[in-house]
Amino acid sequence: MGILSVSRFACLTFSWMNSVIANGYKKPLDLEDIPHLASVDNANEVFPVLKSKVESLSNGDNQITSLGLTKAILYIVWKDVVITGLLALVYALSSFVGPYLIDSFVQYLNGHRDYENQGFVLVAAFFISKIIGCFAQRHWWFKLQQAGIRARSAIVAMIYQKGLTISGQSKQGNSSGEIINFMAVDAERIGEFGWYMHDFWLVFVQVAVGLALLYKNLGLAAVASSISTVVVLLANLPLGNIQEKLQDELMKSKDARMKSTSEILRNMRILKLQGWEMKFLSKIIKLRDEEEGALKKYMYTLSLNAFLFWGAPTVVAGITFTTCLLAGIPLESGKVLSTLATFKILEEPIYNLPDSISVFFQTKVSLDRIATFLRIKDIDSNAVDKVPQGSSNIAVEIINGCFSWDLNASSNPTLKDINISVNQGMLVAVCGTVGSGKSSLLSCILGEVSKISGSVKVEGSKAYVAQSPWIQSGKIEDNILFGREMDRQRYEKVLEACSLKKDLEVLSFGDQTVIGERGLNLSGGQKQRIQIARALYQDADIYLFDDPFSAVDAHTGSHLFKECILRFLDSKTVIYITHQVEFLPAADLILVLRDGRITQAGKYNDILCSRSDFMDLVGAHKEALSAIDSLRINVQEQTNSSKNTNKTQNDETNGILDSKAQLVQEEEREKGKVGFSVYWKYITTAYGGALVPFILLAQVLFQTLEIGSNYWMAWASSGLPGDPALVSGSTLIIVYAALAFGCALCILARGLLLATAAYKAATLLFHKMHLAIFRSPMSFFDSTPSGRILNRASTDQSAVDMQIPYQVASFVFSVIQLLGIVVVMSQAAWQVIIILVPVAGICIWLQQYYLPSAREMGRVVGVCKGPVIQNFAETISGSTTIRSFDQQARFQNTNLKLNNDLSRPQFHVAAAREWLGVRMDMLSCFTFASFLVFLVSIPEGTIDPSIAGVAATYGLTLSNLQGWIIWTLTGLENKIISVERILQYSSIPSEPPLVIESNRPNDQWPSQGEVDICHLQVRYAPHMPLVLRDLTCTFKGGKKSGIVGRTGCGKSTLIQTLFRLVEPAAGQILIDGINISTIGLHDLRSRLSIIPQDPTMFEGTIRSNMDPLEEYTDDKIWEALDKCQLGDEVRSKEGKLDSPVNENGENWSVGQRQLVCLGRVLLKKTKVLVLDEATASVDTATDGMIQQTLGKHFTDSTVIMIAHRITSVLDSDMVLVIEQGLVDEYDSPTKLLEDNSSSFAKLVAEYSMRSNSNY
């Protein structure tokens, strides 16, 4: 039952939540059990309203100011704001009825009766005002939370939409980590601002009413209280400013840390292979230290704040009473108690003011950040003129185009003087050396690059295949359909063309297999082919391919080219970038790029005739081919056998997933109660809990002294007008001042101790969790989407830093206060115990009944947050692909749906809380009323009126306090889950030790570099099949060995086992006679080198990228850069070795990144070198250069190479052919080529055939 179809009464008491809470008590709730939102809260309804409002408020070029954004947000929630404003006013006024009546009540107890049954009339007035106040407060809070959730989901949708439209250039200013923070932290904060919204004007109302009441009681002394109140309020402003500064500092350092963390998690495989993970961990710890500096200051400022504000009411009361004495205004106990009760009510808004002020500033910072983000330049939608299909026969036309990624550096554009015209149905190839601007050319056809001058015309729809595959997490089928309807026939044809059939047969769920984040359980080739399938299925008019053949082996590459481009797309316009010269002859037009200009354009043979850059590329390729010929193969004779190999075209399998368990499991959420052990672990984290007893002691003392001071004032002042005073005025004030001073000291001690313990606990938890994550095995990162880890490092860590300590403390302090009140009340009338016991029982029962559903809904909120963030992160990284397919609207809808899934549990969590609140309030009102009835009905004189008065004064705050305890307890239950989640990641089983002291290899190891593999069996996880099934072979020391085989046969797995990213299930690997499983991981990994498949660079400088461990001198680094031919490139930059590298190395081309990886290896110079398909993203000329460099500098090292280009293994000493995890052949290439029936001979024949044919 939703909130729509309910009666007035159900609405008033929140009874419409009964069914949800009852259901939650029976079983753990899931998202399906939570009712849907009303349309007014639905993101699909709210987002368009906010969007159009923002557009109407932005001036000119979509420049929205923070003020404009605020107006737009208010526009979607203004009704709620007005209603809650009225409710807040009602609540504020009703809360003063109690103090107003206390004076008459004490006089009544002292025997002063005005009329008959006056006592019961007073009790009724107390009771009714309390009840009205309770309902007003509950609905005020609930409505504001509802508005906050609505605002948040609309803002998140705005940010998401912006993420889809910002240009690549603007993205460089905001890393994906920061953009995710806008969504995870800033939008959330704006949503939570609702709580504090009315506090600002409410304070003035409350203070005004309070002072009027004081004036009635104390006459002119009220002036003194008002002056001292204003002084206290003003004292707060400088503290608020300091807090805002610290808050800002904290957010900045947090952004930096999250940016670094997300980059490291993305590249964990490389860090593990190189043995760098501890160095990068220390980098994060260093960033965290800066953050902790700000955190420490922030916490101590907070404790000073608390000191000022808890001390304030006592100070103000002291000043007021002193003024009364000096002015000769008589102090009667009724008036004194009424005054104290008034101060008690004023306490709350004045306490909360600092919070409200700091939240106001936090929200302002967040609004500014989001508005700044919304102002970023979008992609220029007019850069490309899009014309519908069929208006002419030109598909793509660029006239005098000049383009630049960076508009500020327009003096040096990325592409200049581009003139091309491509007719419908043409096949265009783009080639050129590394960094010549090939990918940028495709980007300007897509409209991704800023256009400086010229015109671009594109006719019809486009499909695009990026260089590095972008795969969404989800089913394979969804990745290929990409939002289109399923057309079985076409779908099967596409799978056939991309040779995905075989791969899907191997996967246990076929095309229903769920792919991990960024395609983690697929091999590089499979990701690339799924990406091609996605483009083919789209039936576009123009196809743009950014070198998709480099990630697959030669065999599959030529199959893809033939099937996809020449057959499937024969009638379409296709523009493809390629490094493989053998794909060029088929093109109708070849564009050769150099330094951002088209140096040549024409057909293959025309260009060949004019000596040029093109010749260099082809020349390098020809040399490689002649290597094959020199091995004297008679190619012609082989033609027949190669025809037969077409049948085996699809024998690509990937054994990783051959079982019935999906790799990425659902995120675990602990079910049931948060164990007490979690609280215990948290409390004892800092100094083994040594500070806890002192904090408690300070609070108990504070409570005792506070009650003592009030009791002293009530007892020592005279009962009725005209009674003689019991003590002299000066004594009265001095004792009161002493007690008040004691209170203030306790508060200060409590605040400082709490801050110290909280800071220590946050630090320790952070270090523990990060150490565990960095030391966990690679399999953990493969099966855990990075969003989950990031969520713990940002959201959960934030909660531990800023919220949990104060929530724990707040709960404990309130319980101590409550006990204090109970003691005072039972002092006055012990009969109250008869009521207190059952009421307490009912309260505890209600609490227990409500908690299971609240807790599970809280956890559902946590679990639903992940997908929103992850979907967003994926969208940002694939925004180019999404735009090129014109799928923005579909992605926006997915985001809205995920957003609603998050709002639903949040909305119902809020409702459930108020459901409990209303019921608790009723109980405490009932308790207080019965207590007053006791006092009124006991015969006069049996009880000391001043004690009764003090008890009644304290009783006034009973319902507030009780509500507050429940509120903090449930808030705590929800927040402590963060500690639970951090602890959960602090106990991940770790990899084997980095160094085994008792078994360290000597410094010279490996001196020979001989790698011995005996009966190796490897699987990725216990429930998965073997990938390597019994592999035995020996790589001789100092020799060069090539490994070939179809995609997914286990080549990469063998390398991962050599580096122990995967531990063997059976068998062993020996290097120079030492079993690698017996030594420490760092000892092993630091003595091997690898050039990995995906070239990776980290944010930082060239120096930190070449030598992260800072082991080498600058001269050494320059030497390595020169060897890998990057020296001149780096010298030409301003910063030389300190030239900046962006996130993921985005400001360097893929080829240049590959060269940096080569440079790292040259710097490290080890005895064993592994190349993992390292030359896939480089043109043939650069490839030849890499091979030469390696040949020159690694003559006496063992080189193990996984190859896609058959030519690169021809000059190796030995070739290992792996077939489905077993050794198929292992011999020297010449030997293998002599036997025409060998698998290797067939592969080579195929390669040279396709290279000589013109298709």
UniProtKB/TrEMBL annotation:
Catalytic activity line of the entry: ATP + H2O + xenobioticSide 1 = ADP + phosphate + xenobioticSide 2
As one GO molecular function, the record gives: ATP hydrolysis activity
* Stored InterPro entries: AAA+_ATPase (IPR003593), ABC1_TM_dom (IPR011527), ABC1_TM_sf (IPR036640), ABC_transporter-like_ATP-bd (IPR003439), ABC_transporter-like_CS (IPR017871), ABC_transporter_C-like (IPR050173), ABCC_6TM_D1 (IPR044746), ABCC_6TM_D2 (IPR044726)
- Residues passing through the membrane, by range: 81-102, 117-136, 193-215, 221-242, 679-702, 733-759, 804-824, 830-851
Entry keyword set: ATP-binding, Membrane, Nucleotide-binding, Repeat, Signal, Translocase, Transmembrane, Transmembrane helix, Transport
One Gene Ontology cellular component term attached to this UniProt record is: membrane
Q: How does it sit in the membrane?
A: Multi-pass membrane protein
Entry's localization field: Membrane
One Pfam family recorded for the sequence: ABC_tran
What residue stretches are annotated with the ABC transmembrane type-1 domain? Answer: 82-362, 694-974
So which residues are the signal peptide here? Answer: 1-22
Domain ABC transporter, chain residue ranges per copy: 396-620, 1013-1245
Give the highest taxon in the source lineage: Eukaryota
Q: Which family does it belong to?
A: Belongs to the ABC transporter superfamily. ABCC family. Conjugate transporter (TC 3.A.1.208) subfamily.
Task: From the Swiss-Prot or TrEMBL record, give the protein name.
Answer: ABC-type xenobiotic transporter
Source organism per entry reads Deinandra increscens subsp. villosa
